[in-house]
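4.2 Preliminary Data

To establish feasibility before requesting continued support, the project team ran the inverse folding procedure on a target of 253 residues. The structure was first converted into the token representation described in Section 3, and no sequence information of any kind was made available to the design step. The complete token record follows.
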């Protein structure tokens, strides 16, 4: 992403001249206050939105859902919206199998006729996120943390290279949030994923990410390199770790 600006009305910029580079196989976190432009960044990355200026590239292609060539590769980007996008009155297994639809023919997709190997793959993914024993349970019967695990499993069912997650652990207590993040960490290692995640909690971002970008009113004001529990570099700005934590950390629930 190079010198990217974005607007929903062609007048007011949501993002202003933002540049970032996410390396394959890493966990990249984006942190900022509500309305700072974090979700817009993810929409630019998966082609749901086109920048007003600047360049966004994924595998040397410009993300654009109207572009037929790009649409062929969109299945390789697993996207988990803040709302999760689950079908609450259907089973956990059926929700996860939705991730396999891009691989099926139009006829089979319409009637949701899933081959045996796709059903087996869904159970494998559910086992990875710790929910295979609840595969037949309706989604609305699950806890908040379990619903997030279903959303992760559905995204993994796409066999993605990149996982985009928008505030996936928001509104969870600190213990459950870390359990969900551990699931993503394990999946990232197993499938060699690149994870790009939006967080509201700077402490959690620093704990799990390789790099953390701080967005404030549409500007990227800071990028931090992390190695274990140590901050190893600041790309911009001159804030101390303590000052950053004071700005963005929220009390544990």
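Position-by-position output of the design step:
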């Amino acid at each position: 992403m190079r010198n990217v600006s974005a607007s929903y009305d062609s007048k007011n910029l949501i993002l202003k001249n933002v540049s970032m580079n996410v390396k394959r196989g890493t966990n990249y976190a984006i942190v900022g206050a509500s309305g700072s432009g974090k979700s817009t960044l993810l929409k630019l990355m998966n082609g749901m939105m086109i920048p007003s200026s600047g360049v966004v590239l994924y595998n040397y292609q410009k993300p654009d859902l109207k572009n037929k060539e790009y649409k062929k590769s969109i299945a390789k980007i697993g996207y988990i919206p803040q709302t999760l996008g689950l079908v609450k009155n259907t089973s956990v297994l059926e929700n996860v199998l939705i991730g396999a639809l891009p691989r099926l023919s139009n006829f089979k997709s319409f009637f949701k006729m899933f081959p045996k190997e796709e059903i087996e793959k869904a159970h494998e993914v559910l086992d990875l996120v710790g929910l295979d024993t609840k595969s037949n349970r309706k989604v609305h019967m699950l806890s908040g943390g379990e619903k997030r695990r279903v959303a992760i499993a559905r995204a993994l069912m796409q066999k993605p290279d990149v996982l985009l997650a928008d505030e996936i652990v928001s509104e969870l207590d600190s213990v459950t949030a870390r359990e969900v993040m551990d699931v993503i960490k394990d999946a990232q290692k197993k499938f060699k994923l690149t994870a790009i995640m939006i967080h509201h909690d700077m402490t959690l971002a620093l704990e799990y990410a390789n790099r953390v970008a701080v967005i404030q009113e549409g500007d990227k004001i800071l990028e931090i390199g992390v190695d274990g529990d140590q901050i190893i570099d600041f790309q911009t700005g001159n804030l101390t770790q303590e000052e950053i934590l004071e700005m963005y950390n929220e009390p544990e629930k």
